[in-house]
Amino acid sequence: MGTVHRLFSLRRGFTLLALVFFLLAALPAIGLAAPAQSSEAAPLAHGTWYTVQPGDTLSKIAWRYGTTVSALMTANGLTDANHIYSGQKLKIPTESGSCGRYHTVAYGETLSGIALWYGVSAHRLASANDITNYNHIYSGQSLCIPGGGVGPAPVPSGGFWYTVTYNDTLSAIAWRYGTTAWAIMSANNLTSANRILVGQKLWIPSGYAPPAYPQPTPTPMPPATAVKITGGPWTALYYNNKELGGSPVVTRLESKIHFDWGVGSPDSSVNSDGFSALWTSINTFEATTYRFTSKADDGVRLYVDGILVIDDWNVHPATEKNGEIALSAGSHTVQVRFFEEAGTASIEVYWAKK
User: Which architecture does CATH list for 101-148?
Assistant: First the structure.
């Protein structure tokens, strides 16, 4: 019986010893393999490594790198799209294939804005064009659109596209085109009114956009004998934005609206670019038709008793516009709105009996 017990103990000892030798032999292989798995920066064949950050979801990572949740799950052997954790390393699959189309960069466009327009991620667009600095693209540059992105789905007829510019806000765009921020958000599937990007294209629905005013047919200027009336005194309000928004930075009385600021500004408190102004005066008129004239660089709108008479609300060099309205005898309120985009700024407003 003692002999049997000793044999059993020897067999168990040999088994444990063999297991120890096996583990020791395996350790070098594990040590060699580990660095390749932990290197986030090292590119893999047809993919790169990404380390999951707090708050990441698989759908966010897929959008960021221009791939799909399904492709990420397949590349990483995942079975549950909702089960990833901070610090986890995911292989990002890349797609091969030639450009489906090209885009020529226009002045003021950004990489993120172009990516949004074509429905691809900024990372994917940058990778397809060997761009390492997202802020370094230039006017006239030709960009490859990976996968032949075709932009957002067509929007129903009745409206127009607007390209977001620097300092734009959704509320300012809505005010400019006589609509609401909610209507623009609905038309463009936006989830936040505070997140729009320079270069992004927004659909302005016609159900809210103001009617297009026909361009007046050019007619001769009033006769030399016609008396130019400049009105006034004018209450002038100046704003450091293009939307007449918030509180004015300067309020003062002005005898007439006739200014040529060049590349300067109306006041040391007012920006030389990207400002707006609002002038209001109550004037006495005779019962007749009056011809109103504006000469502005850039946008101008003129109202009489709330009726829009001149609508030239866009960026342009000094341009003359005219509008006519029949007025009854008595007092009428004239209001002039103006904005300056960049460069030189000037405005003149007057009227005369027709």
Answer: Roll (3.10)
